[in-house]
Predict the structure.
Amino acid sequence: MGKNLKKNKNEIANASKRTTHELGTGTSSSGMTRRKALKGVAGLVGGLAVNGFGAESSLAEALPHQVAQPDSTKRLGRPVSGYGERSPYEARVQRWQYQTPTDESSWTMSPLHDQRGIITPSSLHFERHHAGIPDIDPANHELFLFGMVERPLKLSVQDLMRFPAVSLTCFTECSGNTLTEWVEPTLADVQQTHGLISGTEWTGVLLSTLLGEAGLRSGATWIIAEGADGARMNRSIPLDEVGDDAMIAYGQNGEAVRPAQGYPMRLVLPGWEGSSNVKWLHVLKVTDQPYQTREETAKYTDLMGDGVARQFTFVMEAKSVINYPSAQFPVEGPGFVEIRGLAWSGRGKVTHVEVSTDAGATWQEAELQEPVISKSLTTFRFPWTWDGSETILQSRCTDETGYLQPTREALVDVRGLNGTFGSFYHYNAIQSWRVAPDGSIHNVHA
């Protein structure tokens, strides 16, 4: 059967070439028409089914006898469902929760090692809460926009949906992402070190649209955003630094915003630290000064080397990480491996990613995979042949402003190490993964 199958395949290929020629010229030298040529190919395929496999057989049955047929071909599958589910064989794809005294004031890490593409499924988006996830009925929830405006607004979700809608894709990153790396490599894998970031398509109304509707008064320079959770999470936002892409989102990845991500509406400030993207948004008060809230004084400030705290560090700088191979995906012996990872910058597009396979001694350009979107996760790829010896893998990215992701040493030289666990923020240094001779991957400082 194998010889006949190969012969029939060759005949089909040759007939296809002849058919292509006929379609281009109309008629061959022997007078064969396009229709006859196509009919000839169909005949060969039909003959293959009868002579090679049998008229009523599937192509899979032509496989060698030692290849077992999949069980799924022997029975009906599950019926359609009201809400789609992922495969039960993907159960290992789950968020990892950092242990804290309470589950209400806690966080979970997105499984970045399993990220495929630039969008994180809504169910796997990282979480960071200060008083748990509130249960909010959208019918009883409203957004109040007031303060230094000409026309205060009270808006329900349905009111928001009457305004011109926009959709944008961006990353959201907690400013505490990778915070343990300031001191030592304490966590084991890419999910635990970098999992406080997710990529999302948000849908909603531009903040500028609502401010235009309300009308800013002279001297208005700040907005105080506050959520409807038990912590009344609030942040002061400078108007002159907010980008044109700031929005109030009611949609997430094609459906309503998930409760853990701010249902029924949240503030989205692309490229800014996660805590400023206030969830369960309830209040936008326009003022002429910041309110110096707890989350911008006691928390989310950077204690510098000279002992002075830097305040209002909103933008998340350029950063990258290799997520394959990783601790969850060790190298399966010497040979070819495609190194893959993610890069991002709160200042705009990622323009370059470089990969080092020798602990930073040399760097080579990686390929950026489209789409490359401003303030969004960007996928990069790099071909590598591993010789089986111990080495260290690293990546570094450059954004469109020319900013280059720093080494840990360079970052510490500027920022110092005066903070303590829970007060370290905005870490974006190069990550180092040691590949052991057995192919296992380990977090190290190189």
